[in-house]
Amino acid sequence: METKNYWWLSINPKMIKFRELDINDYFFYSCMTEQGTLRTLYKNFAEIKVGEIVIAYENEPSNQILGICVCVQELDKEHIMLKKIEGLTDPVTRYSMETHIELANLEVFRYMQGTLFKLSKREFEVIYSMLRELNPKRKYQLYDNYNKEEFLKEVYFDEKDYDELRDLILARKNVVLQGAPGVGKTYIARRMAFSIIGSKDDEQMLNIQFHEMYSNDEFIEGYRPDDIGIYKYKTGCFKRICNKARNNPDKKFFVIIDEINRGNIPKIFGEAFSLIEIDKRGKENYIELSCSRERFYVPDNLYIIGTMNTYDEDLALSDYALRRRFCFYTINPVFDNSKFKEFYLQNPLLTSIIEKIEEINKELDESRQIGHSYFCKPMPDAEIKMLVKYSVVPLLKEYFRDEPEKYQKWSGELLAII
Prior knowledge:
This protein is α/β, with parallel strands linked by helices. The protein has helices at residues 42-47, 94-98, 107-110, 121-134, 148-154, 159-172, 185-197, 216-219, 237-247, 265-269, 320-325, 338-344, 348-363, 381-399, 404-417, and strands at 6-11, 26-30, 53-58, 64-73, 79-93, 116-119, 174-179, 205-209, 221-225, 231-235, 253-258, 287-288, 295-296, 302-309, 327-330. It has 3 domains: 6-134, Roll (ph1033 like fold); 148-330, P-loop containing nucleotide triphosphate hydrolases (Rossmann fold), CATH 3.40.50.300; 338-417, no CATH class. It is built from 15 helices and 15 strands. The radius of gyration is 27 Å and the shape is elongated.
């Protein structure tokens, strides 16, 4: 049915928790106030027709457009029925609309009271363009399929280890891949996520790296300066992907956090820290965010994979609250993997280097190893020598900083090979 009118519904969050509705959920909205009187602009309730589009705006505390509805039942004695057809990952704020010259005469801005307001076609187009700028419609794109078989082709990983890690991620939802530098933790995390998603779809994945200055404002929400230094409310990257996962409950979404142990984790997660636990997921377990005062929860279809190096004692993960919320899976060097052996045995120089590195690793504990990922791609001998001299040998110096005689021994033997 061709749309004749466009509408704006100001939703009282005490009556309807719009954010918590799933796509295609139906809900009623009454033309009567809580006191039993007709709402201001009651005539709009009488005019709205089936098939007409409604902008869903939530009143205080959020004061944001949260999504789009369509009218599916016209006014009966008291109610209209609407269906949620889109939720926004990034809501549109009232402030951004009030400062837009083409929206200065919105009916909703001219009436102190009211619930259902009429929009002109041009007003709707302006609001819709603002909405799409923050929430672009995903263009159809054919992503390469990716599954267990593709993973095992690209990653030097045994099949039983793949099954174990995949099952752990799906069951526990929060997993940290830990290990020494160069064992391919991030590479494994991304490809494991792709194999669970079923394709190399970056739209279902957030990749970030924690550091000492990373903050809750960036991760959840907060006021941050724009290009000219004016502080404005910003939705953080974790909140955005949670919103995206809410709006697509039939898909799985992943957050890959590199160097998870380098951030101040309780500070970064803030009040949402407890919500990542598997028994506290879902809309029934929510908190009210202190900045937006919005109800926030972590959906069941969101998975978090962190990575951390275990060799740096200064960055040891001593936060027991995090350890309680995450499972820890150790990634070790795989020089004995049959596929990796098949690769490096083709090059005599690389074979000699790896044999020596395996000897060195026996001298080191599990947290301090030389990983295999330094040597995973085909390289000319000159590049292999450069890699050993300027990457592996400096790493040995760090590992044996309290044992200089061992550093001299092993670095000398490695350099003698090249």
